[in-house]
Write a structure and sequence with these properties.
33% of the residues lie in helices and 30% in strands. It is of the alpha+beta class. The strands form two sheets. The chain has a five-stranded antiparallel sheet. The protein has a two-stranded antiparallel ribbon with strand order 1-2. The chain starts with a helix and ends with a helix.
Length: 163
């Protein structure tokens, strides 16, 4: 990413706080974006920028770019549920400006649909038991920490079995 593009990107690397130019009807406004320190951040930074910069119609229809507040909330959520040893998630845009965060690892599917700030629908499917959980979250996201811990434990158990 060139220095000019980097200055205009929504998400900057660790240790930086940037003012991001956000277009609006009355001109451009500026929004501060804090830095993130989880181990996923270096590889996810470019993906967040890409999703927030998608062209209208990116999906061949009327798909919108990921809404800036949705992307920021998703990044903050990832910062809080990041557990060492779990691989980075896939970030998938929704055609309505939302974002899905996904892991498909170690016999689990975990999908977190970020519909807006403090508006999340999350699903976990356990392939071993066939059990599916779906939760709507607004303020208490502790269930996601439990799911991440379970995902890490499943990873540890698989590694121990393969040793």
């Amino acid at each position: 990413m060139s220095m000019a593009n980097q200055a205009n990107s929504a998400f900057q690397g660790p240790g930086s706080a940037t003012l991001y130019q956000m277009p609006n009807r009355g001109g451009a406004s500026r929004a501060p974006v804090t830095s993130y320190n989880n181990h996923w951040w270096p590889s996810l930074q470019a993906r967040f920028n890409e999703l927030a910069s998608l062209e209208k119609g990116w999906d061949g229809y009327q798909g919108r770019p990921v809404i800036f507040t949705v992307a920021t909330f998703a990044a903050n959520l990832l910062e809080r549920i990041c557990i060492e040893g779990i691989s980075e998630p896939a970030l998938v845009p929704g055609s309505d400006g939302t974002m899905q965060i996904e892991w498909h690892k170690n016999g689990f599917d975990v999908e977190i649909d970020v519909l807006g700030p403090n508006k999340v629908v999350a699903m976990r499917y356990d392939h071993k038991s066939g059990q599916e959980e779906v939760v709507e979250l607004e303020n208490d996201f502790s269930v996601l920490l439990t799911w991440m811990s379970d995902l890490a434990s499943a990873r540890d158990n698989l590694e121990a079995a393969n040793a």
